[in-house]
Request: fold
Amino acid sequence: MGDVGCGKSIVMFACAFMVSPSLCVLLAPSVLLAHQLYEEAQKFLPSLDIALVLAGKNPPNFQSASLLIGTHALLSRKLPREPVLVMIDEQHRFGVRHRNILAKMPIRPHMIQFSATPIPRTLAMIESNFVRLSLIKQQPFVRNVTTSIVRKDGFRNLLAHLHKEIGQGRQAAIIYPLREESDTMPYRSLAEAREFWEKEFGIVHVTHSKDKDKDKNLLDFRENGKILLATTVIEVGISLPRLCTIVISGAEHFGLATLHQLRGRVSRTGSDGYCFLFTHRDNTSRLESFAATSNGFEIAELDLSLRKSGDILGGERQSGMGLVFFDPTTDMEILKLAQKIRKQEGENA
Reply:
């Protein structure tokens, strides 16, 4: 576990290098992120045979590669040989079903999962010793991101901030909870808001999960854009070095892990970053707790305390239920004592 931008990809590439020429598989939650990891792997691992495996035909070097990079679609392929290591990037985006496929392999590989914000069930498994945890605590540079809660009466100031940032050659992203209009959501959808932003800033870039050209549109925005209107499709994936402001509309409708990942899109090169949580709600205690910390582990613990751990063993539920006699958010001293006693008994056995 390491915060957004800490260098988890370098750890992945080091692990792949260590096990080569044995087979290593690296899974990403999106095609765009798989492409990005593949390009970075080629740069940092020039001596390795690396294959990018996406939907459709296998690449020419599928049989010979020692590192296969792809999405979860890789799990349905007949691999050229048994992998000794499987790595999962953005672990919180993969379901239990995907991980169960790996667990049923004839020769179970070592597995390393990477995340800035583990889901409540995963954090509960870590704290219950079902999963071992390694932390990357340092950042390659200081990320100075200011998180603010904004209501309707603060929108004029928010607009002025966006004009200032755009005028200085920086980029901004506006994230919407819905792609199309809804009768139940008291916020504009992506489609409804587009006209306003086009009048205000001229050309804007728009993408969402159903957009067939989203990869192309994101790349075009990275190189030439000013304002990006999107859903959570940018939560993981493409690096946007000029993105310094992100506005999340209807922020209370997003999970804490998603909010943290979205906030992690800005200030990736060390410049000042801004995250605005736009809400109509008066009670914003959950958002205030999120805004008060930029530490991914603290956010994961907050998420666990709010949503509970779910079904730790079976994985049928990812949240919403917890243990009867133990609460990992309040009883950690008891757990540490039990672990200490168990270790002592093991040493004396």
